[in-house]
Amino acid sequence: MTFSQKNLNANETIALDLHPHWWYFSSPVFALVVSIIGSIWALTTDGDSNLGKVMRVVFIAALVVSALWVVARYLKWMTTHFVITSHRLIFRTGVIAKSGIEIPLERVNNVNFNQSIFERMLGAGDLLIESGGEDGQSRFSDIKRPDEVQRMIHSQMELAAERRGSYARGGGGVASVAEELERLEGMLQRGTLSPEEFEAQKRRLLG
C-alpha cells in the first residue's frame, strides 16, 4: 500500500515512500515458530497425563496468540509509512488509531543514522533527525538502508533550498522575508544569535 496522494499539498511530490524493514516482523514470527514447534511436540507426546494435557492447551493457545500477533503486525506494517517529499518528512502509522510526525525540510538541522553490525548485514537501522520544531529530536526505527535514506533527505533539502532561493530572486519578497525571520527566530531560540544580533537582523530585513 502506497502513501495516499491526497495527503500531499499542491505541487508536492514524493521522493521516497518506505514501509519498515522486514526485521520489523522478527519478534512475532519468532514467537509463532516456537509455538508451532511446541504445539507439534505437545500433540505427538503422551496426551493422557495431566501435564501433557496442560502443555497441549498452553502451546495451542500460544499458537493462536502468536498468529494473531503476526497478523496485527502485518496490518501495522502496511499502514506505516516513512515518506520524503519535496517539502517535508512524513511519518504515519496506525491501523485504527493513527499517529504521525511531519517535519518541514527547512526545519531539519541534522540527520544521523545508526546500525549495529547485525543490522548492517540485514540492511536495516535507525534514523535520528534533529529539527527546529518543538520535539527537537525524532528517532525512526527499522528503516531500510538508512545511509541511503540519509543521503536522500540531504538531497531533497538542497533542492528545497534552491527553490526558495529561486523564488526569492524571482520577486517573492514577502514570503522570503517571512521565511528569513522564521530562520532567525530558530537561531535565537537555539542560542546561535544573541537578542541584540537578532534585533539588528530583523531591522535589516524590515528596512
Automatic annotation (TrEMBL):
Residue ranges of the TM segments: 21-42, 54-72
Location of the YdbS-like PH domain: 77-151
Domain SHOCT: 179-206
InterPro entries, alphabetized: SHOCT (IPR018649), YdbS-like_PH (IPR005182)
A Pfam family hit: bPH_2
This protein's record includes keyword Membrane: yes
Protein name listed in UniProt: Unannotated protein
Organism expressing this protein natively: freshwater metagenome
